[in-house]
């Protein structure tokens, strides 16, 4: 990572869920909520031991973010957007930690939060963040919109990522509004629709731009 404080922050967020689980484990109920339906109601409970599996996801992701650039054939390009990559890694790991925190809250005080609205709002913030940074990402094999056409042509990569940034920024705003106004089932459908539509648009446009440049 570019700065030592980024590494420290990444691992604080990565290990916080496990640390919290170690502290709270004895007081957690034997059965904890692990999945919620479209209506925001819990539809699966499980043993609190299962939280150990959830707790290792954030550290695993932190390790993945650390090593992926070293494996990328275009690893030198990461230096051109290292700050954005580090920020993305921290944001994703923090997002996972907040989801774990949600499980703790719902275990001790069921119904305290509207789970659907909470997750939709978090997704909105994540998409706003990604929308602001995608246009700065340089060609690589692991991070960004990787289609055969973006990987093959830097100009197509840049155009596609500028488009992706705009689409995800506005999707993020839409998610935040939805978290305030829509029923929980509708929020989930909106999330899925936005992700699918924006992904399809990015794939199609990367192909069109590539064919225009390479008829």
From TrEMBL:
Keywords: Membrane, Transmembrane, Transmembrane helix. InterPro entries: DUF1648, SdpI, SdpI/YhfL. It comes from the Bacteria. The chain crosses the membrane at residues 53-71, 83-105, 111-130, 163-182, 188-210. One of its GO terms (biological process) is response to toxic substance. Residues 13-57 form the DUF1648 domain. This is SdpI family protein.
């Amino acid at each position: 990572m570019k700065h030592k404080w980024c590494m420290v922050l990444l691992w604080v967020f990565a290990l916080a869920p496990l640390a919290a689980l170690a502290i709270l484990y004895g007081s957690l109920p034997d059965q904890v909520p692990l999945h919620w339906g479209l209506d925001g109601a819990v539809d699966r409970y499980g043993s609190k031991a299962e939280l150990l599996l959830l707790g290792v996801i954030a550290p695993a992701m932190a390790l993945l973010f650390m090593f992926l650039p070293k494996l990328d054939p275009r690893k030198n390009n990461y230096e051109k957007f290292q700050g954005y990559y580090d920020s993305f890694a921290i944001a994703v790991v923090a997002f996972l930690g907040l989801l774990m925190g949600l499980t703790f809250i719902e275990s001790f005080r069921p119904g305290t939060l509207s789970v659907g609205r909470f997750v939709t709002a978090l997704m909105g913030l994540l998409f706003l963040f990604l929308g602001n940074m995608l246009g700065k990402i340089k060609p690589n094999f692991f991070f960004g919109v990787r289609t055969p056409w973006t990987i093959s042509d830097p100009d197509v990569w840049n155009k596609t990522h500028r488009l992706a940034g705009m689409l995800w920024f506005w999707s993020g705003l839409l998610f935040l509004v939805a978290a305030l106004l829509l029923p929980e089932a509708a929020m989930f459908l909106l999330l899925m629709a936005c992700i699918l539509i924006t992904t399809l648009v990015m794939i199609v446009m990367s192909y069109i731009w590539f064919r225009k440049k390479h008829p």
